[in-house]
């Protein structure tokens, strides 16, 4: 365990000093401390300062050495580098293994409730989890799922104020452009892999923008209010769901489904896949290369990975435990949690333990924590 933690820290610090103009070693050390503390059940600056018996003002001072631009860059570069290694490993394997791992890009957002008056990016957002409007931060993420591993490629806070180009769809297009450019520079076409969205992102302008970037295979969960023409029957999707005949035991499908060619006044020609999910009939809109029913179902089930990512970020990484002020502080709080998730995920893959099991095993082991942090010269913080 200790070896895996130190190996990840070496990777992280090497990447920082290679890709960022961060000449303050203390800022890198404090960030490393915070990430490592999550493995020991220390989720914020106050808890870490109490255990290390140092003034928490020292930690705040050095953490503020990271600028807003650096936090945004961190949330792109670190995740993409981890995904790059996993992709290169997967692409070196057989075609059958690649098919089983089903590489998929997922897009989704979540609302993290916040009550503080000085916390930035706090607005009223509709929460799908609570089915009501909450005050909090809206976080938009693009993740890559390879097999059972979910890696955040880029994460951003969404604002309702400021310039017009801060809207959620425009922000997403910017994020996807940055991701595509990163992997293109390293010889991998991330645009070859399917992208999945829930029904909120069903937009023709967004789809066209993604196609211009290079993403061709796009799957969107369809709303019941969309209108489609299927076999000369022009109705809302909610009507088609009541009349469509699902077929059991189709090749490669473990649920009843029906695939149909359709035409939409909004989206043009496309493929629809109706499938049973418990007692509910759901429908996927498929753009790009026509796919078989089994392929569509396999890709859409990978979208569950981003939901898993949000749950882990909130329940295991304790996203709400850090709430720093101003825009830099908001991104610092988010950045620490995303990086801690990446660290915990890598250690989990290396050890075979779940993230929760790792934290349970490491919590309270202050001797090991002190040994790991002793490599980072704590005097630089205590003398701040």
Descriptive report:
This protein is α+β, with helices and mostly antiparallel strands and 384 residues long. The strands form two sheets. Strands 1, 2, 3, 4, 5, 6, 9, 10 and 11 form a nine-stranded mixed β-sheet that branches. A two-stranded antiparallel ribbon has the order 7-8.
Number of helices: 15
Q: State the shape.
A: globular
Number of domains in the coordinates?
A: 2
Q: Please give the largest β-sheet.
A: 9 strands, mixed
Which parts are unreliable, with pLDDT below 50 for 5 consecutive residues or more? 378-384
Quick one: how many beta strands? 11
Taken as a percent bin, the fraction of beta residues is 15-25%
> Radius of gyration from the CA trace?
22 Å
Structural class: alpha+beta
Mean pLDDT: 89
Q: Please bin the fraction of helical residues.
A: 40-55%
Distance between termini?
Answer: 31 Å
Order of helices and strands: HHHHHHEEEEHEHEEEHEEEHHHHHH
Q: Quick recap of the structure?
A:
By secondary structure, this protein is an alpha+beta fold. Helix content is 48%, strand content 21%.
